Amino acid sequence: MISSTKITIIGCGNLGTSIARGLLSIPGFPANNLTLTKRNTSSLKEFENQGVNTLSDNLEAVKGSHIVILGVKPYNIPSILQEIKPGLDGENQMIVSLATGVTLDEILENINPTSPTFRAMPNIAADIQESITCICSKNTNSPQEQLVKDLFDSIGQTITIDESLMEAATVLGACGIAYVLRFMRAMIQGGIQIGFDAKTASQIVNQTVKGAAQLMIQKNMHPEEAIDKVTTPKGCTIVGLNEMEHQGFSSAMVRGVLASYEKIEK
């Protein structure tokens, strides 16, 4: 059970702290089962005040943990793994890397090659337990896979995928949240231009986007099916949609997704 699991997050940037907040929101999860590291721990004061262990010593932080989450930049992965390797407990300790583009084999080159190792790609909605997390693994058994799945299910939803799709998952799930936020910002700007103050426009847009997502999830609908329900003949919705398409809306979105993917591939 996740409530009895000791978890260490190495390198608490935006994503690491989002996961930490999500974990602390789980009923019954003890704050002292969570250890966070950062070079300067002063920025982790909010967690320390809740009873979370905060350290600058990565090697000390991994000792006794059941799951070690690596929330560091991809180029730092080899050096961090070499740093914590003496404190790792081989096949009894799971390594979870959040780093884009660093393969399972590349991780295992730096630690015990039989260690149970995962790659996971959540997004910052972990902060409010609404992340989508894609996971792949190597050297793992069913109980270990279930435990890591339970961890990320506690901060949203998880999908197990083939490692070859992890970079695509990064673009669609992690980069994707920024695409949605930029779209929302543009809607708010449009709302201001047609007469709303910024606060009211934000409230309308936020709930509209939330409602659209929930409609897709709960009704299991294709977006076009829902769009058809609000595009009446000669109506204002179809006029707006057609103008967006004339300006390259869908094409720009697809090209943005591909550009992010090509950046990772390089």
TrEMBL record:
NCBIfam families, per database record: proC (TIGR00112)
Keyword hit for Oxidoreductase: yes
Function as written in the Swiss-Prot or TrEMBL entry: Catalyzes the reduction of 1-pyrroline-5-carboxylate (PCA) to L-proline.
Catalytic activity entry: L-proline + NAD(+) = (S)-1-pyrroline-5-carboxylate + NADH + 2 H(+); L-proline + NADP(+) = (S)-1-pyrroline-5-carboxylate + NADPH + 2 H(+)
Record's subcellular location: Cytoplasm
Listed name of the protein: Pyrroline-5-carboxylate reductase
Domain Pyrroline-5-carboxylate reductase catalytic N-terminal: 6-99
Keywords: Amino-acid biosynthesis, Cytoplasm, NADP, Oxidoreductase, Proline biosynthesis
Any one GO molecular function term: pyrroline-5-carboxylate reductase activity
Example of a GO biological process term: L-proline biosynthetic process
Organism annotation: Algoriphagus formosus
Presence of the UniProt keyword NADP in the record: yes
